[in-house]
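Handoff note, outgoing to incoming analyst
You'll be picking up this chain. Sequence as last confirmed:
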Amino acid sequence: MPLDYQHQLNLLRDLLQDHQTDCNGTAAECAQLQRLARQLMNHGDVHEKIKETLQSVHDYSYVGATHQKLDDHIYQHQTHLKNWVDTIDSHHAF
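Most recent structure output, in case you need it:
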């Protein structure tokens, strides 16, 4: 059963928050973030600010999926990760 829009956005937010909180992750998580961001960008009900965030998440995840030092990549994006989670929280009712 495929995830609906709400579940996809919740999963994306949770993965981003895990990267921010734990300051580590896996290439598989990055690939999943990339897929989720791409799917959500094509959804008609997504707030414009979230669409901008999704593009940034997609780019972050694309690089992260093949980064030699993924933990360093995540660490360098701590501020972005917090901002992305905050943007999703402020423009979406969970």
